[in-house]
Design a protein that fits this description.
Strand order of the largest sheet of chain A: 6-7-8-3-9-10
Number of strands of chain B: 4
Oligomer: heterodimer
Structural class of chain A: alpha/beta
Largest sheet of chain B: 4 strands, antiparallel
Helix content of chain A: 25-40%
Shape of chain B: rod-shaped
Radius of gyration of chain B: 31 Å
Radius of gyration of chain A: 18 Å
Number of strands of chain A: 10
Number of domains of chain B: 2
CATH topology of the domain at 19-44 and 73-85 and 115-252 in chain A: Rossmann fold
């Protein structure tokens, strides 16, 4: 699949959570940068490359075996598979929570397997993660949770305030900024987690089973949110076992994990590229 | 970054680690450690000052004893020795001890008879030497006075106060050792507290870590908080110890003893004591930083 950011630079991003108002200045600036990056990424080579990656925990058998694929900037990718197939493990490798036991992983053109530890934070800041269990910091308000990546990046509080307020409005939680996670519903927590994942303008958004704990309507709305982000140039990787959900995103690529091995139903993710005339297994 | 920005950032950092600064036991433990450290340091410094003071007082002094049973001859030798001493360039002052004063001093132990002159008591002359090279001067005086009479002895004061000086020095060294042990114990407590804080905030740390926070950024959160705890505890312990030292000082002065009065704290000692809480805060901050960085180093 080609990157879907070509319209991201020109389209204004309507708030997906019922707030149908023009995007304010902070969001407009965000869109501009994302759109520009999306266009650049589209012309570039893959921003994620896995080559014969294997992952083993301790002395157990491999959780992931010979995983090879590449993701292009601005793409929308689904990762599917049964429970225990290795989806979360693969995502952990992608958002640099884990190093593989073997193989090569290139992010943004650099081999992150051999990268010195002190350089990893710079790469992590380019990746937003929506965890399956949200991992909101329980003693912080929704506002402070969303502000975390910006504070990590060392942004001034005055700028943070504008960005976070915009983001809260964007996810429809403008009046819930001071609420603690425990007082938010599952859907609200999920939106806080998404807002936190995207506020620092990541190039890749990784979401692990984002619809696992929500009803069908909420799942559809989340997907709308991801599509909106994708239109702005963010590469989206969503792990899910909700197959009907995948069909709702036009042009999305799908990877399927089966007992730690990756199959590529569409054939476009294969890395190195599949020779012409060879059928996809 | 403006002042308001900095204040807001500091407040946000404070919210990240939610427990109140004085809620845990660490500030109180550090207060106790600092209290004991300041007391031990003050003892060591006071004793060092006493050793110096007593040493300086006694190093240039000697007592000349004329051990002659015949009272007339003793008086004659005492006068001749005093004249000789006054002529000596090594001697700054000569003070023959009045026999009546001597008799008064020995009366409580030897009774009235000794004071009446039935018991031969040596004649004594207090000598204050000119500064420097005390041992050589004592040797020269010994030679000159021995030529006058073999019954004249020179007793340098430093010789019989040396054991006391050694005792005070040993006590001072002990106090310094206690200060060192206290510093080590404080560092150990901080390491344990930092580890506990790190474990209890593991979830927050993991999230920050995956958002791209560097080890130093995360360590700063802990070192700042532990530094503030140490500052609170250190100041509390220091002020309490200061009150105790001042109270003890007034009690020592009230004894009227020259020896005890020598245990005093010059301004340099007060300065060293004032540096202890600052050192405590620095030590705690560094120990916390080291501990957290070490723990984070085990993560990817």
């Amino acid at each position: 699949m080609k990157g879907r950011a070509e319209d991201g630079a020109t389209r204004r991003f309507a708030t997906p959570w019922a707030l149908r108002q023009p995007a304010p200045c902070a969001m407009a600036a965000w869109q501009g940068k994302q759109g520009a990056r999306g266009r650049i990424n589209q012309g570039m080579s893959a921003i994620v490359q896995f080559e014969n990656v294997g992952l083993r925990y301790g002395l157990d058998s491999e959780t992931l075996s010979d995983v090879s694929f590449s993701l292009h900037g601005g793409g929308f990718y689904f990762l599917t598979g049964a429970s225990g197939a290795g989806k979360t493990s693969l995502l952990k490798l992608l958002y640099l929570a884990q190093r593989p036991s073997r193989g090569v992983i290139r992010l943004f053109g650099e081999d992150v397997v051999t990268l010195p530890r002190k350089r990893l934070p710079g790469f992590r800041r380019r990746i937003g993660v929506v965890f399956q269990d949200f991992r909101l910091v329980s003693h912080l308000s929704a506002y402070d949770n969303i502000a975390l990546p910006l504070r990590v990046a060392g942004m001034a509080e005055s700028e943070i305030d504008a960005s976070v307020s915009e983001m809260l409005n964007w996810v429809g939680l403008g009046d819930r900024g001071q609420a603690r996670p425990a007082t938010l519903s599952g859907g609200e927590q999920q939106r806080v987690a998404i807002a936190r994942a995207v506020i620092a303008r990541p190039e890749i958004l990784v979401a692990d089973e984002p619809t696992g704990n929500v009803d069908a309507d909420m799942a559809r709305r989340l997907l709308t949110l991801f599509e909106a982000l994708n239109r702005l140039g963010t590469t989206i990787v969503v792990a899910t076992h909700d197959l009907p959900l995948i069909g709702q995103v036009q042009g999305a690529q799908m990877m399927r994990l089966d007992k730690g091995r990756l199959s590529d139903p569409t054939g476009a993710l294969r890395y190195p590229p599949r020779p012409q005339g060879v059928a996809v297994s | 970054m403006t002042g308001a920005d900095r204040r807001a950032a500091a407040a946000a950092r404070h919210r990240l680690l939610p427990e109140g600064r004085v809620a845990g036991p660490m500030p109180w433990v550090i207060a106790i450690m600092m209290f004991l450290t300041v007391l031990a340091a003050a003892s060591g410094l006071g004793l060092a000052a006493a050793v110096q003071s007593v040493g300086a007082d006694l190093a240039g002094r000697a007592t000349i004893q004329i051990v002659e049973a015949n009272a007339d001859r003793r008086e004659e030798l005492s006068g001749a020795a005093a004249r000789l001493l006054r002529k000596s360039p090594d001697v700054r002052a000569v003070r023959p001890v009045d026999p009546a004063t001597l008799a008064d001093q020995i009366r409580p132990w030897l009774g009235q008879d000794a004071a009446d002159g039935d018991l031969p008591i040596p004649a004594l002359i207090d000598v204050e030497l000119t500064p420097g090279a005390t041992a050589a001067k004592v040797q020269r005086l010994n030679r000159v006075l021995a030529a006058l009479s073999p019954r004249i002895r020179v007793e340098p004061h430093a010789a019989f106060l040396r054991p006391l000086g050694s005792l005070l020095t040993a006590l001072g060294s002990l106090a310094a050792g206690i200060v060192l042990l206290m510093a080590l114990a404080t560092a150990a407590i901080v390491v344990l507290a930092a580890r506990a804080a790190h474990d209890s905030h593991r979830g927050t740390i993991d999230v920050l870590h995956l958002m791209g926070a560097t080890d130093v950024q995360i360590a700063r959160l802990f070192q700042r908080r532990i530094g503030l705890d140490a500052l609170f505890g250190g100041l509390l312990g220091f002020v309490t110890a200061l009150l105790v030292i001042i109270l003890l000082g007034t009690r020592l002065a009230a004894t009227g003893s020259d020896l005890l009065a020598a245990i005093s704290l010059p301004w340099t000692s007060w300065l060293i004591l004032a540096l202890l809480p600052i050192g405590g805060v620095l030590l705690s901050t560094l120990a916390a930083r080291w501990t957290v960085l070490r723990s984070l180093g085990r993560l990817l």
